[in-house]
Specification:
This protein has 2 domains: about 160 residues, P-loop containing nucleotide triphosphate hydrolases (Rossmann fold, 3-Layer(aba) Sandwich), CATH 3.40.50.300; about 80 residues, no CATH class. Helix content is about 35%, strand content about 25%. It has a 6-stranded mixed β-sheet with strand order 6-7-8-3-9-10, with helices on both faces. Strands 2-1-4-5 form a 4-stranded antiparallel β-sheet, with helices on one face. A hairpin with a 2-residue loop joins strand 1 and strand 2.
Length: about 250
């Protein structure tokens, strides 16, 4: 592990009288896959929204790659190489897979979305986009309309759209949502293959995926950190086994 790429220091967020993020501190190191788990309503997605910039915390500090990004918006965080894959697919169905990735590359460079056609004509952008598609196993799907891809392929396409922006960290908000067993297995293998390219913060309910991928796991309950440790430490913790994993720890 290297130096922390993400440092969250005493983060809190409330909606009315409900505190959804309760004094959360954690780090994600360079090259690490750090998983966030917990029951429904634990505050996982709210925490990720604050890290990505779609929500502003009430208290606390977020540092990314050594910079205080607490007050930055989403676009500025992306330019710092922080990317997010959403729980609900965020692709452009009427565009090809290659066009989706090329647009992501162009938007990272600060160009307006309405100028996507010049990006498609830019050989350097196309090369980067095709390389990203190849890295997620979609090289032969580059000319296919995104709406025609399978659900699992759409998730892989979103990963390519992140990778073309050369992220230091990818926020993965339930990437296995809506996938069947075979697609989950393929996506898990894909994420394993990407571990040497970028750090990841993973929110996921599929424990098979979590334990296959994670170097460290943080358990959130009621918006607060219950436990942070290795997969073995988390799996063996009595409160986690009882409250979340089940009595057998599975």
């Amino acid at each position: 592990m290297g130096e922390p790429v993400l440092e969250i220091d005493h983060l809190s967020k409330s909606f009315g009288g409900l505190r959804v993020t309760n004094d959360v501190s954690l780090t994600v190191e360079s090259g690490e896959v750090h998983a966030l788990i917990g029951p429904n309503g634990a505050g996982k997605t709210t925490l990720v929204a604050q890290i990505s910039g779609t929500l502003r915390p009430d208290k606390g500090v977020i540092r990314f790659a050594g910079h205080d990004i607490t007050s930055l918006g989403v676009a500025a965080r992306v330019r710092h190489h922080l990317s997010r894959v959403f729980q609900i697919s965020n692709i452009l169905g009427s565009f090809t897979a290659l066009e989706n990735v090329a647009i992501a590359a162009q938007s990272f460079n600060g160009s307006s979305f309405r100028f996507w056609k010049p990006a498609i004509a830019d050989a350097a952008v196309i090369d980067r986009a095709q390389a990203a598609l190849t890295s997620v196993g979609l090289a032969t799907r580059s000319g296919m309309q995104a709406s025609e891809l399978s659900h699992g392929e759409k998730r892989a396409l979103e990963l390519a759209m992140c990778l073309v922006q050369e992220p230091k960290l990818i926020l993965l908000d339930e990437p296995m949502a809506g996938t069947g067993r075979d697609e989950t297995a393929r996506l898990t293998e894909l994420l394993v293959s990407l571990k040497d390219k970028t750090a990841m913060l993973l929110v996921e309910h599929d424990m098979g995926t979590v334990f296959a991928l994670a170097d460290r796991i943080t358990v959130l309950v009621g918006g607060a950190v219950l436990l942070s440790g290795t997969p073995e430490e988390v799996r063996g913790h009595p409160l986690v086994r009882t409250a979340y994993l089940g009595a057998d720890g599975s």
